[in-house]
Q: What sequence folds into this?
């Protein structure tokens, strides 16, 4: 047992700093799911590597950056203030458009309306939904089906505009010290983090914009895993789903 | 962990308070910019990565949990991921000669952490400085350039086994120093 265990244990430090090669990463991640002692070792090394950020000297950024960020902040408190969209439709028509394009039933129309009212107080969620609906109108946008063991939904993907939105139904709730983490998957299997999210309590619909800091055309898949709050350098937890594109 | 003032700022930030956001920006922008500049080696790219990081703070503040650790470490972790993603996007691998002199990078300054946290960070900094040049090099390339052990082996011309051994030894040293404080 010790002979089988040792190679994995030796790879834990490199994994903690994000330097383990792809093939060894896959093997170690599989081992970690079943080995509590290696997970404890990983947590100990992560405690160190996470705090390495504090050893870099500070350096003041350009003064203009503060004003740039100030200009990007919403000018109103966070409440429902629908932003102008290129199509002028009412709440019902917005729901109907989503239903038609997502292929949902009449029951789904009412469900979408109920969900939109429930989430109307959260402007960020509303913005994600508007982003999703906007993408549905793009000719080049792909509308891909997600089918996981515990979740279903759509991935809306437009590589030309480098934009993507996840639309998920019934995302399982997770512990307070956990988060869902989105991973973009390269052809060689490398994972690149693309954001964190948590399902809203009581909400059946979760939409999440993929932060467009990556060139989506360089990736061939997307996955979501459960990670410790704050995220991980590489996937460590159970997978919610994976989709190829 | 958070002091009362920072706890209040985070709570206000989650509610969309722009003044709280700017207060946190004033407090940590130098840390973030210093780290992204260290990784990207280009002030313009570092500025963009810093901007992206604070926008993520604005959008993700609700995900932060004080019991998991310092806000500054959480924020800098986001900054590091953001900068490394940008590094990969740009396919930017500065020649080793363009890298910062290793001796320039490893010291910490007083920070808004608890006394015990500052003490540990300082110990960690000293431990990094105390690493042998070879050990420090592999940590440097892994942490600030996001390289895998194979990539480090190729760049430095060292056998892969040597890279692995040095990586493991360096991190064991740092772990020992971190836990000793």
A:
């Amino acid at each position: 047992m010790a002979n089988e265990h040792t190679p994995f244990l030796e790879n834990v430090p490199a994994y903690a700093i994000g330097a383990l090669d792809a093939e060894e990463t896959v093997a170690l991640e599989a081992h970690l799911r079943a080995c509590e002692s290696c997970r404890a070792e990983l947590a100990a090394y992560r405690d160190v590597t996470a705090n390495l950020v504090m050893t870099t000297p500070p350096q003041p950024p350009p003064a203009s950056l503060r004003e740039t960020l100030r200009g990007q902040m919403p000018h109103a408190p966070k409440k429902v203030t629908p932003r102008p969209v290129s199509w002028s439709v009412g709440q019902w028509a917005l729901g109907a458009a989503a239903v038609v394009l997502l292929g949902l039933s009449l029951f789904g129309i009412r469900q979408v309306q109920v969900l939109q009212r429930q989430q109307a107080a959260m402007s960020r969620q509303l913005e994600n939904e508007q982003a999703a609906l906007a993408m549905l109108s793009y000719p080049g946008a792909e509308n891909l089906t997600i089918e996981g063991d515990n979740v279903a939904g759509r991935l809306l993907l437009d590589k030309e505009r480098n934009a993507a939105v996840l639309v998920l139904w019934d995302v399982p709730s997770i512990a307070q010290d956990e988060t869902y983490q989105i991973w973009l998957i390269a052809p060689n299997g490398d994972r690149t983090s693309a954001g964190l999210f948590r399902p809203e309590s009581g909400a059946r619909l979760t939409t999440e914009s993929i932060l467009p800091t990556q060139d989506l055309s360089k990736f061939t898949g997307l996955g979501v895993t459960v990670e410790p709050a704050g995220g991980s350098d590489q996937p460590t937890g159970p997978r919610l789903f994976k989709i190829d594109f | 962990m958070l002091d009362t003032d920072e706890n209040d700022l985070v709570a206000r930030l989650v509610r969309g308070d722009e003044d709280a956001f700017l207060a946190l920006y004033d407090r940590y922008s130098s840390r973030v910019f210093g780290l992204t500049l260290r990784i990207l080696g280009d002030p313009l790219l570092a500025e963009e990565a810093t901007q992206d990081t604070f926008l993520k703070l604005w959008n993700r503040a609700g995900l932060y949990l004080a019991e998991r650790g310092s806000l500054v470490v959480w924020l800098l972790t986001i900054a590091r991921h953001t900068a490394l993603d940008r590094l990969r996007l740009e396919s930017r691998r500065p020649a080793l000669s363009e890298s910062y002199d290793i001796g320039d990078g490893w010291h910490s300054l007083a920070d808004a952490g608890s006394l015990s946290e500052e003490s540990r960070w300082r110990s960690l900094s000293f431990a990094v400085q105390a690493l042998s040049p070879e050990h420090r090099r592999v940590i440097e390339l892994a942490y600030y350039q996001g390289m895998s052990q194979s990539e480090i082996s190729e760049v430095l011309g060292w056998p892969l086994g040597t890279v692995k051994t040095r990586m493991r030894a360096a991190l064991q040293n740092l772990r020992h120093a971190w836990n000793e404080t």
About this structure: The domain at 1-92 of chain B is CATH 1.10.1740.10 (Rna Polymerase Sigma Factor; Chain: A). The CA atoms of residues 1 and 68 of chain B lie 9 Å apart.
